[in-house]
Structures are given as structure tokens and as C-alpha cells.
Amino acid sequence: MRSLVATRTAAAVAATLMLAACGGAPTASPSSGDSGSGREDSDLAVAAAETYAKFNGMSGQERTDELVACAEEEGQLNVYTSNTDMEDLIDVFSDEYDIEVNNYRAGSESVLQRLLQEDEAGYYGADVFETNALELGVADQEGLLHPYESELRDSVLEQGRQSEGWTATRFNAFVVGWNTDNVKPGEEPTSLEQLAGPEWKGRISMEVGDVDWFTALHDYYVDEQGMSEDEYTDLMTRLASNSQVVKGHTVQGELLSAGQFDVGVSLYSHTVDKAAAEGAPVAWRPASGEPVQPIISRPNGIGLVKTATNPCAAMLFVDFELTGGQDVFKEAFRIGSVEGTDNPLSAFETFAVPEEKLLEDPDTWNKAYEDLLANGQAID
Q: Are the C-beta atoms of 41 and 35 separated by less than 8 Å?
């Protein structure tokens, strides 16, 4: 199952292996608690599991009070994440609790590879793993995560509770966005089919890691709209042929704001909304009419690492992301996972990423998307 991200993480894997070959743990940090100190995997897992089981079986204020006391006694938390807003979350969390937070952030594939390689090396640097659904799914299938139970998890939207090993804290929405200086009112794209036309040659962008978006579109067009496989392949090939291929959604958003291209076909809605709020000439919702359909929705979330050296702090941080953290997500224009939170997509139809399909047959979909992007123009 580790092949899920193999084609997209060769550099990250090589770097991690090189560190391991040099005799150092991939997360060599003086503040990593007992991780890497020679404690056996089984010892850590048993100790963490006992703590997790204790608090999973508690509820209400008693659970909160005891969990906070235990977490502050541990005194630290090690977070592995791909979340670009993690520092904001940590600031609020650290203001509320007397816990030092060590944050390792990288792209989702790189963070997963670090977690996997550390596990293979017998080094346990992470307490929580916080990233995209697919990478969380791989970590769960590899047996690296432990179930989290609480009244807070019960309040998460159903799409965010599909796995026992991790819990959604927010959702990412893939949308079609454009530069409003280059695409005038009334000229906004109305469909991916339109963007696959020759008049958009070189004017649009795709992102190198969006195999989940690509697979969801396949199911939408083929299973829901009745396209044949050949018709879908032709549509996406024409779309890719018009595209500049970018690595990273943050970079993609920055280049859109700068006018490097006119339209991004798989931008995150929060990336566009945040940039627009800061004055960038970007949008994904026309002044009149609906956004380009379909909008693809994917949960992002957090999992308790089974070998956590600070399991109480890990559980407390999950609690936090499902309570006060939801306000932090909202301020960053993200879509919270808890029922009753404001959802800017509530007025539109969304289509979910088929997570199980991708986990069951990753090689097929990775290869198909990689072959598709070969038709575009790569941007370093």
C-alpha cells in the first residue's frame, strides 16, 4: 500500500533514506521526548494504547480535566502535518495549555514518507499525524494510527468519520478559479469541457499531486454523467494539453494571483478566498451564476500515532482541533468538519473523493494521472 504516493515522493524517500544511512533518525530533535531513545515499538504502543483507552472511555468535564492535567504533565507535543495554517492552530493551543509544541510541516506525501521511514527505522518522532485523507488512510492501513473516540468525534460530519483510525477536522474543496484581471466578468469559465477547448491553450493550470481530484472526476463523469471511458480520457487529455503543471496548491494560488495563468482547474477554495481577502485579483464564484461543477470535496484530518510518546497531549490536540480549532480554520477560510459550522459550499452540490477506491488500487490511478500530466507543460 505504500506505493500510493511512490511516484510523487521519490525525492522525499531518497532524502529520508540518506539520513537513515548516515545513522541519524529522520526527526533528530532534542525535544522529541523518549522517541529514538531505544524504547521498543511494542512498549510505546502498549503505553500509548493504555492512555488512549482510558480517555476514550471517559466523557464530559471529567475527561477534559484529567486529559488537560495529563497533557500538561507530559509538557510537549510533536505534530507532523502538511497544514499550512498549523502555526496559527499551535499559537491558540499554546496560549490555552502549558504544552510545548514541536511542528514538522511539509507536503502531504513527504510527511507520510517521513512517518513511514521513521517507523521502519524504529524511531518514533510523531504524536499526531495531521494531513490529507489519502495519506492518513495509508498510515492507518500500515497500522500506525490508533482510534480516537469522544463526543466530539460524534459531532463530525459523516464523510469525516469513514475511518476508525483518523477523524476529519476540515474539508478541502477543489474548485475552478480564475484571475479576474485576465478573465473579465461574463467571460468566466462555465465547465471543464469549455476549458478543454483550443482557445484556452496555455491559459490554465493543473497540480501535480491531484490524483484524488482526477479520480473523483472520473467517477463523476463516468458513473454519474454517463461518459464513456474514452470520452473521459479525451476530455482530460485536452484539458492537460492546455495546462501549465504546477507543484503545490499554495504555489498554484500564488501564480494565479500573479497572472502566470488565467485559470486553475483544481485550486483549493480556501486558497482563492484567502488571496481575494488580501486583495489578489482571484475568484472561484462568479458574481452571477454558479461555480464550475463539480466541486470535489475531500476530508483532511488528524490521527493519533500509536507509538506517541505524549499520548495525552495528542488526544488533547485532537479535541482542540474539533473545538477551538474550528474557529481558526474559519478565519483561514477553511471548511470545518463539525456539524453546524459555517460551510461556504452548502449552497452548491459537491462530489466526494473516492478514498477507498484510491487506497485499494493506488497504482492504477497514480499511473493514469501521471500519464495525463505528461501532456501539459511543467512549471518548476
A: no
